[in-house]
Amino acid sequence: MLVWGTANPEGLCESYNGLFFKQSDLAKTAKDIIGKPVKIEHKGVSVGSVVSAWTDTAGKLDLLLSIDTSVVEGSMISQLVKVGSCRELSLGYSVRMQGSHVMEDKAGEKTVLEVSLVRKGARDKCHIHGFSW
Prior knowledge:
Layout: E1 2-8, H1 23-32, E2 37-40, E3 43-55, E4 61-67, H2 72-83, E5 88-98, E6 106-118, E7 128-132
Parallel strand pairs: 2-6
Antiparallel strand pairs: 1-4, 1-7, 2-3, 3-4, 5-6
């Protein structure tokens, strides 16, 4: 099964210093995320992988995911996507923090660890747009 959706809303401005993705972070992530595992609700075994990623004209991170329906978990989540019970995507990522006693803490490089198919994600606008068998 192939699933297409938005995994992150528009990136924030370059002066932003926090845990969310800036626009430049999303451009880098679109290159680095290919091959990352797909999970269900950030848990368990991988049910697939990211096969394509891009930022759309609005600056959102869109992904094409391949779900392995030959494994039980992949088959089950595919059915939940098909009937509309699982409608969103969520990124699992780490953020390297840099601190100093002279300056405020600074959020550094963000690294995506996995993408999850979820019922309700933490971020708005991260919906599954379509799928094919």
